[in-house]
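The instructor's notes for this session suggest beginning with a concrete chain rather than abstract definitions. Hand out the sequence below and ask the class to guess, before any prediction is shown, which regions might be ordered.
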Amino acid sequence: METFESSDGTVIAFERAGTGPPVVLVEGALRDRTASVELSSMLAATFAVYTYDRRGRGASGDSPPYSVDLEVEDLEALIMRAGGSAAVFGRGSGAALALLAAADGVAIGQLVAYEPPYVVDSGRARPSTDLPARVRGMVAAGRPADAVERYLVEAEGRSTAAVARMQAEPGWSAMEGLAPTITHDLAIMGDYAIPEERFAAIKARTSIVDGIASAPWLREAAQATAAFIPGARYLTLEGPSADLAAHDLDARTAAPVLAELLS
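After discussion, reveal the predicted structure:
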C-alpha cells in the first residue's frame, strides 16, 4: 500500500498491480479498494492497475468538510501519480464520480462507467431530499446498520427482504463500517438526475455499461446517460453476476470486455 496527500492534506491510500498503461478503478457506495481485488488482478495482465480507498474508507483519511470537488481532486491526484493521464473504470456512484471528473477536464483518456445509478424511470422514485440528513443522524446516534439499510432501500432500490438477507452475510459488518461515507455518495448523486449539460463537456472516449439482468431502472439510466455524452458508446455485459439486483458485475465476464474498452 502507498499513500499521498490530496489538495486539502487528506491522506489517500492506494495500491498498484501489474505493468502497462495505467488504469484507475473507482469503487461505489459501501465499498473500499478491496472490492476491486479480483478485477484488478485480471486487468493487471495488461495494465498497471491502481485501486484506492476513496476518502473516509479503508486506510484513507476523511478531513471535514466533505465536498464532491475534493473527491474529484483525489482522483485527479492519483491519475497524476499514475503518469499524468489514465483510463478509468468506475461502478455505481463511483462511475458517477468518474464521469464528473471527466466533465471537469481531469486527464482521463478512456472512461468506462458501469451503471451510474441516476433515476430516469418515472416508475422509480428518487431518494428523498432528507435522506442524507437522516443517514447522518443514524450514524451519529451509533446506528450504522440502520443507515446502511435506509441507503440500500431508498437509494439502491433494494427490498427490505433482500437487505435482511444481506445482514446475515459476512460482508455486512464491513458495510456498517463504511456507513459514515454514505453521505459522500449521496452528495455525488445529487438529486439523482443526470447532469446533462455537465456531461456534454466530456471529451474522454466513454463507454456506459450495464448488465443483462440488472434492474430495469439501472439499465434505463445507463442508456440515458450515454445519450448525453458526445460519442459515448452504450453496451451490455452478458453472463453471470453475483448479485444482479445490486448492479454488481462478474469479474471474469467483465475483465476481457473492460480490457478492450480501456485500451
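Then share the key points. Residues 241-246 have pLDDT under 50 and may be disordered. The radius of gyration is 17 Å.
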